[in-house]
Amino acid sequence: MDEAIHADERHPTKHWHKLDDGRIQCDICPRDCKMREGQRGACFVRGVADGQVVLTTYGRSSGFCIDPIEKKPLNHFFPGSSVFSFGTAGCNLACKFCQNWDISKSRDMDRLMDNASPDGIAQSAKKHGCKSVAFTYNDPVVFFEYALDTADACHAQGLQTVAVTAGYIHDAPRRELYAKMDAANIDLKGFTDEFYVKLCSAHLQPILDTLIYVQHETNCWLEITTLLIPGHNDSDAELAALSKWVMRELGPDVPLHFSAFHPDWKMPDVSPTPPATLTRARRIALDAGLHHVYTGNVHDLEGGITYCTSCHASLIERDWYRINAYRLTESGACPHCHTILAGCFGKFSGQFGRMRIPVQIALT
């Protein structure tokens, strides 16, 4: 794709190589975009300038907000805490059902009005009392270098880091990214390659590879989200296959979130997900042996409860992003049988609640 890459947009990257025909291939993700000078990849924000792949959105964000950590969604990562959220523009998938299409599919660089260095983001998050910083709204894979530098700045300030991602990334950058992430929510958008090809312009296997890698080869806390789209990925058979795979390959303690679709982007004629579908999906996953299965984008008290895996006591009760009851000990144990709950926990000193607070950062 041709569009001028201005000099002030050219931040160098390293995951690329030159081809024999003179083109340059971006090696950040399985799309393997092959470009000539001045062309951009499918994500639109990585392109070729001066004989190398550059990132055009380094230091430029689509906005900053303080959110509840439950919105990411992460239910076992310092519940009740606030997270400083930001993203840029562009995406390496092309999901027809994208819920953030105005950001992820934006080709208007003028949208990126908020400028901030990695240090500026970390300092602002610290100043606002956030526990963590999330790379979200669009996929951190496409702003890889900005995300990694910001993660380093956050850790220097004592902040945790969170990736909200589709997990569509090659092995080498995958290792770099998750070495710097403390938690991740990875979308498992469906459980057939046909779904990924037709609705996302991608493939299933690289996401499965990412999930296995993060769970078994990193210290990054992992949770999974599947957006249920009526008639496309919500059959009993597909939900059972997905749940059994998570159980077999990742284990019973990885939280799985089923969230409700609403008509958007290129699928405006598909009906919203009925709450009964989420309840059915949750039951299928629990029957497969998973311990922590949640429902999202709906008010569902039962689907928001975290139970002890031993005595089945109710440990955390939620309504959407709000915590109604919190009974874990400071060490993350059940107060009744002392079983440690899988996740990252600490002293619970109240909750951030449902607020979403926009933040502006001074140019740094």
Write the layout of secondary structure elements.
Blueprint: E1 11-12, E2 16-18, E3 24-26, E4 34-35, E5 46-49, E6 52-55, E7 60-61, E8 63-68, E9 82-87, H1 101-104, E10 114-115, H2 118-127, E11 132-135, H3 144-156, E12 160-165, H4 171-179, E13 183-187, H5 193-200, H6 205-217, E14 221-228, H7 236-250, E15 256-260, H8 275-287, E16 293-296, E17 306-307, E18 314-319, E19 322-326, E20 357-359
Parallel strand pairs: 9-11, 11-12, 12-13, 13-14, 14-15, 15-16
Antiparallel strand pairs: 1-6, 2-3, 3-4, 5-6, 7-10, 8-9, 8-20, 17-18, 18-19
Descriptive report:
- This protein has 364 residues and is α/β, with parallel strands linked by helices.
- The chain has 2 domains: 7-55, no CATH class; 60-298 and 349-359, Alpha-Beta Barrel (TIM Barrel), CATH 3.20.20.70.
- Helix content is 23%, strand content 23%.
- The strands form 5 sheets. A 9-stranded mixed β-sheet has the order 16-15-14-13-12-11-9-8-20.
- Strand 5 (46-49) and strand 6 (52-55) form a beta hairpin.
- Helix 2 packs across helix 3 (144-156) and helix 7 packs across helix 8 (275-287).
- The longest helix has 15 residues, at 236-250.
- Residues 108-112 have low confidence and may be disordered.
Offer a quick outline of the entry:
It contains eight helices and 20 strands.
